[in-house]
Amino acid sequence: MSSASSFGPSRHFEAWWNRSHLGRPLMQVMARRDVPLEGLERVPEPRTPEGLHLDVAAKAAGQRNLLRTHLFLADAYPNLSVNIGPGSLATYLGAEPAFAWDTVWFHKCVSDWRAAPPLAFDPANPWWTRHLALVRQAQTAAAGRYLVNIPDLVEGVDILSAMRGPQAFCMDLIDEPEEVERRLAELDRVYFDSYDRMYDAVRAPDGSCSYTAFDLWGPGRTAKVQCDFCALMSPAQFRRFVQPWLQRQCARLDNSMYHLDGPDAIKHLDALMEIPELDAVQWTSGAAKPDGGWDGWYPIYDRVRRADKSLWIALYDGGFEDWTERADRLVARYGADGLYLLFPTMSEREAERLIDHAEKAWK
Questions:
Q1: d(CA 107, CA 176)
Q2: What is the 3-state secondary structure (H, E, C) of 41-56?
Q3: Cβ proximity of 255 and 17 under 8 Å
Q4: Burial 21-46 (b: 16+ CB within 10 A, else e)
Q5: Is the full-model pTM beyond 0.90?
Q6: pLDDT digit string (tens) for 72-103?
Q7: SS3 71
Q8: Taking a C-beta distance cutoff of 8 angstroms, is the pair 160, 187 a contact?
Q9: Going from the N-terminus, what domains does the chain have, and what CATH number goes with each?
Q10: Each residue's pLDDT tens digit, 218-228
């Protein structure tokens, strides 16, 4: 897989982004090989949380082992991420990351927006230079066997909240709304200064790329967009501080998918659906909630489809028969076009059954 020109799922992903006819849903299907291709490499155990997240050599060895032990079927494709947590952009602007075994968070670095310098891309920032070097190292190690993803930069309000601290930033929205808007305009430029350089580091010769999180490939500049902080915002605040910047961001991207995170974010769905440049929506139901196939989520999906946007839906509760049954109902309700279904890793036999069923029943 040296370029997207030989990348099998490309035509299917293009159809999904465009809500055009594919013949079946876009599908991520991974299967455990009955017999591994060859002996596995030894992958050293990380000694620190930082090593867990940023040791490219260990990540590359793990990815090679994954290729030996798993099949990537339907539209699944192998890809590798190197992230300084969800919101790497904050580190390029002065926030120090705090690495944990299960996540990365950021130390706040702004005590007063009015006293802080303008937000600007700094090519000499130590976290930026290190991160770009790690991504380039990963790209070299991939050697065309898998794709290296654009990191999870994150944008807008989520980055300002990370830099300021969520509690203080809640007050900023009330006490200093014009200052917040000024910082959002600065941050928009920083985002694309960073995104464009990362895109250039990993893009294929035809301009396609893969974005970290949610297995997203696109024929052009592709990204997941979000505002997890919106759970703490009113609809009026979302329309003022999030919607305009998301629209600008989506207009500059070729393919964009919004990460709608949890029940407290649903109140902003109407404002999101008013963004014509947004292509797709991914729904995360939250801890201890049913997976994406639960019919209780249909009202969300109905609103997304009425706005003519694609759906990303993960199925993982129960076993193989449960996944297939929920997928049957989703395809019956929404059709195959603009539907991306992601399944848990399964056996080779189950994968064969699923793909055969998709070809026969989901066209």
A1: 22
A2: CCCCCCCCHHHHHHCH
A3: yes
A4: ebebbbbbbbbeeeeeeeeeeebeee
A5: yes
A6: 999 999 999 999 999 999 999 999 999 999 99
A7: strand
A8: yes
A9: 4-361 (3.20.20.210)
A10: 999 999 999 99
